[in-house]
Amino acid sequence: MKREPSQRQRANAHLLEHIQAVHSQHRQAYGALKTWKHLNNIGVVCGKHRVAKIRAEAGIEAKRKTRLG
């Protein structure tokens, strides 16, 4: 028998949807801290380490600036 997802797992899945939306809205330029600040500004309360952990587990990374020259 398979267990139902826990409350934390369901909350993390919901938070991942928000993180992916912010990531795509800002041209994949936001890292974990800016994503966390943006989520808190729109009313999604969560911890910055939780955002970083969920991003890492999902393989979401910010685009890095390229050096010219």
Can you give me a brief rundown of this structure?
With 69 residues, this protein is mainly alpha-helical. Helices cover 58% and strands 0% of the residues.
Summarize the structure in words.
The structure is a single chain. The model has no long low-confidence stretch (mean pLDDT 96). It contains three helices and no strands. It has one domain. 58% of the residues lie in helices and 0% in strands. Helix 2 (32-41) packs across helix 3 (48-58). It has 69 residues and is mainly α. The protein starts with 6 loop residues before the first helix and ends in an 11-residue tail after the last helix.
Descriptive labels:
69 residues, mainly alpha, 3 helices, 58% helix, elongated
Q: Can you count the helices?
A: 3
Low-confidence stretches: none
Report the major sheet: none
Beta-sheet strand percentage? under 5%
The number of domains: 1
Oligomer: single chain
Extended strand count? 0
Structural class: mainly alpha
- Helix-strand string: HHH
Rg measurement, Å:
14 Å
Distance between the amino and carboxyl termini = 59 Å
The average pLDDT value, as a whole number, equals: 96
**Helix proportion of residues, in percent?**
55-70%
Q: Which outline best applies?
A: elongated
